[in-house]
From TrEMBL:
Signal sequence segment: none
Subunit-level organization: Homodimer.
Source species of the chain: Thermaurantimonas aggregans
UniProt pathway annotation: Carbohydrate degradation; glycolysis; D-glyceraldehyde 3-phosphate from glycerone phosphate: step 1/1; Carbohydrate biosynthesis; gluconeogenesis
Protein's UniProt keywords contain Transcription regulation: no
Lineage per the UniProt record: Bacteria, Pseudomonadati, Bacteroidota, Flavobacteriia, Flavobacteriales
UniProt main location, coarse: cytoplasm
Name assigned to this protein: Triosephosphate isomerase
Amino acid sequence: MKRPKLIAGNWKMNTTVSEGLKTLDSLLVGLSQMTPKAQVAVAPPFTHLSDFQKKLKGTSICLAAQNVSDKLNGAYTGEVSVFMLKELGVKKVIIAHSERRQYYGETNDSALEKIKVVLKHEIYPIYCVGESLEDRESGHHFEVVEEQITSVLYKLSEEKLPKITIAYEPVWAIGTGKTATPEQADEMHAFIRDVIGKRFGDDLGVQMQILYGGSVNAANAASLLAMPHIDGALVGGASLKPEEFLSIIKAAS
Ligand SMILES: O=C[C@H](O)COP(=O)(O)O
């Protein structure tokens, strides 16, 4: 089955608005000189979304956010709601990134709530899963990822699944320069398809869009993206360097 490819840049907490706009401009110039086969998304900090929405008007780049509240409105200091994102043209949102799990106490339960909220308001989640180094070294990586899938996605109804993108990001490969080998990543992606298939049927397992994330760069993108179960990349550090990000986008073509 031919699944659409997605290359998404997660800018994390990097760049001020003015710096970010310069980076976006370079990216747009590069993209105007190519015909990307993959869908391209950028997830800048919340502060950038309004300006980015204006710049991205009429382009094919999808605007994404890095997080969202599971609450709709009210006294939740510091939170950003799905309505606020929607008004700014956000189409996708990263949910339960490992940094949110590790530093801000996000859990499978909170991920489920957030996924339900955004789907209800037609924003598409990129749900992040992945094991720690300790999990991998002790041979528990499949178990951990299975739990992240079953305790969240199994609780949704079948018709919701095709609206969700999964990002497999082994924590030990994030920002470390240590990438999972294409075989390691592909093996986990195939496993995730099987886990989805067990509950929702093999067709849905095959249909899910699953990205790989963790030190993806211009040098390793082609070999990762060539793997049969890898449908794109969630790129951190390299997405802040337009030339490098463009090379990754090209590698998906
Ligand atoms: O969301 C992106 C991932 O955390 C990967 O980050 P990285 O490419 O800097 O390793």
